[in-house]
Amino acid sequence: MRVLICDDEPLARDRMRRMLEKIPATLCVGEAENGQELLEMVPRVHPELILLDIRMPGMDGLQAASRLSDGDNPPAIIFCTAYDEHAIEAFKVNAVDYLLKPVRQEDLEGALSKASRINKAQMSAVRKELGEEHDPDSSEREYISARSRRGIELIPVADVRYFLADQKYVTVRHSQGETLLDETLKDLETEFGERFFRIHRNALVALDYVEGMEHKGSQYQLRIQGIAERLTVSRRHASAVKKLLQRL
């Protein structure tokens, strides 16, 4: 992957370049100090991905990303910044990821992996969630935004296995692991009730990933695709869950 670094701080560019050197199949094709220099370099070095700071003198990162997004086949963008308040604006210009400084090696590797998988359909879904493309026939989000140690993370709803409530937080389990959400289980059930069903007062499960239900002693448990642990079905919900699974 051809990567261009844009940051007004030389030490930050040096650190990012050293991190890239540790990642196989990546090549740093250049460095820019601000948005204007970035726009001038892109046609010369043809990057597939830009690691972009936001606050820079002259043209900032958001302005440069907006200009790039207007072109044909723009490069993917990962924002690397010390400030978290620009996340929504960043995703409006099709950012693949939003990493908070100091960027960790494993987080950069994860963002590069995501960039290699992202496609236009996913970006369209992100814009729809942010209100730029409104589908009158659907009020559901396709992505859930969550704040993590890496910054702002977007989780595809189609990748969610289940939501599990614990006190005031909800854990969302997906293919990449677990992430905490600052949302209520009730609100999630209201929004995604066609795709998830309640098996316990603290759990919502994705219909698409249920493999079956087992009777273990006095409890019923669900088998979830790709997950070793079993989820307990409460006695209150057991009958409704069995009927639902029989119709699938």
TrEMBL record:
InterPro entries, sorted: CheY-like_superfamily, LytR-like, LytTR_DNA-bd_dom, Sig_transdc_resp-reg_receiver
Keyword NAD: no
Domain of life per record: Bacteria
Signal peptide: none
SMART domains assigned to the protein according to its UniProt record, in alphabetical order: LytTR, REC
Modified-residue entries (4-aspartylphosphate), positions: 53
Transmembrane segments: none
GO molecular function terms listed in the Swiss-Prot or TrEMBL record: DNA binding; phosphorelay response regulator activity
Keywords linked to the UniProt accession: DNA-binding, Phosphoprotein, Two-component regulatory system
Residue intervals of the Response regulatory domain: 2-116
Domain HTH LytTR-type: 144-247
PANTHER family in alphabetical order: STAGE 0 SPORULATION PROTEIN A HOMOLOG, TRANSCRIPTIONAL REGULATOR-RELATED
Protein name: DNA-binding response regulator
Species this chain originates from: Ketobacter alkanivorans
